[in-house]
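To: structure subgroup
Subject: Chain for Friday's discussion

All,

I'm putting the inputs and outputs inline so they're searchable in the archive.
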Amino acid sequence: MDQDRPVESPVEEQPTLREKAYESFTRHLLARDVRPGQFVSQRRLVELTGLTLGAIRELVPRLEAEGLIKTVPQRGLQIAHIDLNLIREAFQLRVFLEKEAVALFTQSAPDQAIARLLKEHREILEAIQGGNDSRELELHAQAVDWGMHDAFIDALGNTIISNVYRVNSIKMRLIRQERFRIDGRVGPVMSEHLKVLEAIERRSVEEAVAALVAHINHARDRAIRL
């Protein structure tokens, strides 16, 4: 029956070819189908994304503006190279954005949201203490890690900041893939997160900000050392 058919989204809500190309590119980038520093042609991006050359040509200026690729004369498009300068800048931006975000989150987050984050982290630490060192736990811990930081940014309710943070998050994930991962460090990372969350639970803005900055700086230092 007609009433059982799914309602189609209005045309204006459908993603444009440019958006589809962007989503496809970033998905392949994070899946390591293309690697930092690698040179690619527009036609290679067409093959990778399955979209048109026109869509790729519209996409390139956005990727250049976001620092995800750069055009090198005579050679083509180069995927962002992970170097010390990128690492320092990406982590510095994280500190600027997340300090304000965690301060607001500490003041305004519902008790149940804080309780949920604490529960997720404590369950992971309990699993580690129980001898669980599985790949599944590491993947779950990574998702919980990203989820906590995303929750802080979401608390700002600022689309401009969210967009800037999203682009920086892509760079952060590339840095993690190239320089370090959560693998083998689940316990220390979750413990650092707990310090932040316990300060939030106490509604101590100063302690939460200090614990978060220490956590981000520890990650930055590991990336730079490697």
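Points worth raising on Friday:
The longest strand covers residues 69-72.
The mean pLDDT is 89.

D.
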